[in-house]
């Protein structure tokens, strides 16, 4: 049992007027007397608990009413706990027993006897994918231990390849899991979709390429298709689309300008595949203003769609 669980247990006993002492901790958690003394000292000195010892009742009590531990009855922590379970379910990690155990233990420690917050919260991602628990654990272990991974990977077209990679960062984007890694086969950074990994094996070799804290590769351009910024795209939104976009942020460096009864959105782009899909979803209420090459690509796509539906 962790220090957190022992502290909250001891705190609950005090609040219940049970006057607990070191023996209570020793018997409940099978710890040494020295550890029990350290726990109580931590509660008093680090968490600023108003502890005092009652000689006649041979136990501790609080000298101030309504003392609470950090996060106790915290709405934010309640929400985070609920999101933990929903995140696991909606991003394909529900089968990982570790997440279920963490959620269960936190629920019991922080909110004993309370309604399971997961029953009161609903989160939903569309197009969610199931991730193999074994592969996810291997990716996490490789990141933590900074080891290279050997991947069996299928591309979006279904082509299978073997890749040796230096894992750099785990990424969750729109409910999907990705691994940013240096690909030794391609000699560059690549984003690997975890759902397309058929095997991930730790090699024991240390990574040769690491991501520095100030590295902005993941955030400098729009969308999941990353890389150096090639251009800034400008889209004009009108009607309902303009009202929707007015309240959204597609990228941290975007610029929004009201003009001619609509809204102009400008943002940095490295790869336009996702941007094309985003613009098309708004139909006639979204128009590419520039660059011209991107505008022409949209025109071609619309013409192909028109031919498809005119058959």
Write out key terms for the chains shown.
Arc Repressor Mutant, subunit A; alpha+beta; 311 residues; 4 domains; SH3 type barrels; 9 helices; single chain; 4-stranded antiparallel beta sheet; 5-stranded antiparallel beta sheet; 36% helix
Pattern of helices and strands: HHHEEHHHEEEEEEHEEHEH
Please report the distance between the alpha carbons of the first and last residues. 67 Å
Shape: elongated
Spans of at least 5 consecutive residues whose pLDDT stays below 50 are none
Number of strands: 11
Helix content: 25-40%
Cα Rg = 27 Å
Largest sheet: 5 strands, antiparallel
Total number of helical segments? Answer: 9
What is the overall pLDDT average? 86
Strand sequence of the main sheet, in spatial order? 6-5-4-3-7
Summarize the structure.
With 311 residues, the protein is an alpha+beta fold. The chain has helices spanning 3-15, 22-29, 33-45, 75-90, 97-110, 133-145, 239-246, 273-280, 292-309, and strands spanning 51-54, 59-62, 147-154, 160-173, 176-183, 188-193, 197-206, 231-237, 255-259, 262-269, 286-290.
């Amino acid at each position: 049992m962790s220090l957190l669980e022992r502290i909250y247990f001891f705190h609950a006993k005090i609040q219940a007027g049970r006057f607990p002492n070191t023996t209570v901790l020793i018997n409940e958690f099978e710890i040494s007397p020295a550890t029990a003394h350290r726990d109580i000292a931590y509660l008093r000195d680090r968490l600023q608990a108003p502890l005092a010892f009652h000689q006649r009742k041979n136990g501790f009590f609080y000298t101030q009413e309504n003392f609470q531990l950090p996060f106790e009855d915290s709405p934010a922590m309640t929400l985070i706990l609920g999101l933990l379970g929903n995140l696991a379910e909606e991003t394909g990690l529900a089968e990982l027993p570790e997440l279920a155990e963490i959620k269960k233990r936190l629920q019991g420690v922080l909110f004993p006897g309370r309604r399971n917050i997961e029953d009161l919260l609903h989160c939903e991602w569309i197009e969610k994918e199931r991730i193999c628990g074994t592969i996810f654990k291997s990716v996490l272990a490789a990141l933590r231990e900074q080891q290279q991974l050997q991947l069996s990977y299928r591309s979006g077209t279904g082509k299978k390849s073997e890749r040796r990679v230096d894992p750099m960062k785990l990424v969750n984007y729109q409910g999907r899991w990705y691994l940013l890694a240096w690909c030794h086969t391609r000699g560059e950074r690549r984003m690997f979709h975890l759902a397309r990994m058929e095997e991930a094996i730790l090699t024991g070799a240390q990574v040769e390429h690491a991501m520095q804290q100030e590295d902005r590769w993941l955030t400098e351009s729009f969308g999941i298709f990353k890389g150096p910024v090639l251009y800034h795209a400008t889209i004009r939104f009108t009607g309902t689309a303009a009202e929707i976009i007015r309240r959204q942020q597609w990228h941290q460096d975007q610029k929004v300008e009201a003009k001619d009864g609509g809204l102009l959105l400008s943002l940095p782009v490295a790869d336009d595949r996702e941007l094309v899909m985003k613009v098309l979803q708004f139909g006639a209420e979204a128009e590419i203003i520039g660059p011209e090459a991107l505008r022409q690509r949209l025109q071609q796509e619309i013409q192909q769609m028109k031919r498809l539906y005119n058959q």
